[in-house]
Amino acid sequence: MAYKRPGGGLTTAQQAAKFLGVSVLAGGLLAGLSLPAVGALGLAAKGTVEGFDKLPASVEQPPLSQKSTILDKDGGLIATVYARNRTVVPLKQVAPAMQQAIVAIEDMRFYEHGAVDLKGILRAVNANAQAGTVQEGASTLTQQYVKNIAMEEAGEDQAKLAAATRQTLGRKIRELKLAIQVEQELTKKQILENYLNIAFFGEQAYGVEAAAQRYYSKPAKDLTVPEAAMLAGVVQSPSRYDPLNDEQEALKRRNTVIDKMVQAKYVTPAVAAKAKAKGLGLKFSSPRNGCITAVNGAGFFCDYVRETFLQNPVFGKTAGERKKKWEHGGLTIHTTLDPKAQRSINESIKKHVYQTDKVAAAVSMVQPGTGRIVGMGQSRPYGLDPKQHQTTLNLSADQKMGGSRYGFQVGSTFKPITAAAAIEEGMPLTKVYPSPNKMTWKSPIRTCGTNWSNTQRETTQNETREEVGPYGLAEATKKSINTYFAAMISEYGICPVTEMAQRMGVHTGNGGKLSQVPTMTLGVADISPLTMANAYATFANRGVYCTPVAIQSITDAHGKKLRVPKTACSRAMETRTADTINTLLKGVVSDGTGQLAGLSGRDNGGKTGTTDERKNAWYVGHTPNLAAAVWVGGPGAEKPKMVNITIGGKYHYKVFGGAVPAPIWRDAMAGALEGKPAPSFVTVPLPRPEPKKKPGDDDRDKPGNGNNGGLLDGGLLTGGTDGGTTDGTNGSTPTGGTLTGGTTDGTTTVGATDGGTLDGGLLTGGTTGTDGGRNNGGGTTGWQ
User: Fold this and answer.
1) pLDDT at 545 over 90
2) Could you give the CA distance from residue 778 to residue 720 in angstroms, rounded to a whole number?
3) Cis before residue 640, ω within 30 degrees of 0?
């Protein structure tokens, strides 16, 4: 806000005339302005007092840049960030000794003169004449304040900063006139308060409060005489009098300030002697600034918040305006981060993937229905030292938000999006495709533009030779059968899948649209974990997509609330479509590729994903009230093949989405949801299994050996209590991993009647509750 003249006192022209008259008589513009002797001639060349009075005299103090505080959803500190380390305080929160020390050393006659100290000018003329060089200046504290305003406005702009500090006659004259204007508009106490808050005290400390904390780890109101004198002495030359660089020089300067305080009658000689007898007594606090200081592993989330502020138009129409607001700081930013979820993410990652591993892991969590990002973490910690495996690359986010250049291929986690699009197009849930082990892509396939044609006779195939159809929707989803979903997108078209993905907020990591190729159903697109987590949150929210948000509220330095971006929700698919996908994904967890992601006592579903050459492994899943995506792979340009590899101290012959990412997801989600409600999905009855079953899965791992309900050759062990033994005999046949026997005599099919669910997702309608259940190791009998 510009200062306004209240009226009364000498006019600017009258004050200028008085000053100029003295300066010319003294031949001393040199002394008054600390400029070469030709300064007086320069003034004459400038013209008359009337010309001086025509110079601009508007002083507009910019908001002082100070620290901003980033908080989690509960008000806990995440990080403190600032362009300049400053905390603005009123004069009453500055110790009187500090006020006196700065006046004594910078402008002893501050309370006696106006904007210009004529006696000071004459004194400086005499001192400089005797020395033959410029030994003493006569700039008043008010003139120094005006200069600091110009420096604050310049910020990090080096050209503007040079102009604000350049020793030129024109700058000095304008500075003088602005100082006169300030003296007419502010009281002496207001000027002193403003100066103490704007001045630079060295060591990244702007303003007296930051300086007191930096050098003495205490507030400015508690500074003693020797401490205040040391800080006041630093201001004239922060590098020369820096006590960390030269303690003896700083000590000499401090004692000079104390002597000046005696001369100004602020302290007695006895008090001064006692103060000078003390050492500097520093209790130095290292600067803690920026996302590198974030607690609870939230450095990447902190960066995401910063990028949100700098990029979202709600905080300013232009990038420059938003940057200026951020750098001025003084903001209190309440975010969506859930500290409990964040801790759980960190603990799970640390348990399963080591910081020094060849590959990295990243986890993002989103709350369905609100778009709130509640957690974000990765195995490579936030930092600048690559030797310590640190990085500032946010593996969870898009490129524009600090993430990788493109994202990561998502593999089979994309298949549910294809299924949702096909169901919306009218695909019956009873749909069966031949699903051979290998097939040539059909041609042409409908896109949103020119249809795709298979001119190169491209093919796709399933993971193992045993994966041969026909398959229905439920089993193909559980086993992640490539040729089933290839046939699906071939029949219903690439365009509906592309449009479904767009409605679910899915885009590539560099912000681009998905390429309209049929292999999109197999997850060839590079997408960020946050995007995938939010897409699955759409399933959890029964078909309604909500844009992700990281900020709940912001208040500025004056306590004024700022507008923040709100989530925007829109329907991406019919409710029943989402319910169907949720039912399918529950099956993936109960007896498909995602069993190691299962949460005890909670409805949850998800999908595994493993890309070609095992360079990326994924698990993306959700409960009705939380969604998360886990990615594991090479964090840089080099993408190691995850074969014969040790991750988190555990050897893996081959990495699958169901082997490494799934347990990370399970542990992270279990901790995040502890103590929270456990709502259920609305499920949709699915067709019974096809008569032909084939073991195998492109994402399976082998946590069991086929005994006691473990996985057998990728399929589920058949057999169970009453219906047969654990080796699949006596009424049970290991056909594709599903129990096909029934009661004790093996004549009645268990869990095949009526459908429905029973504790843990077991189908009702069987003869006994034990038949169709899990048997010592996680193999599932019965049909889901």
Assistant:
1) yes
2) 11
3) no
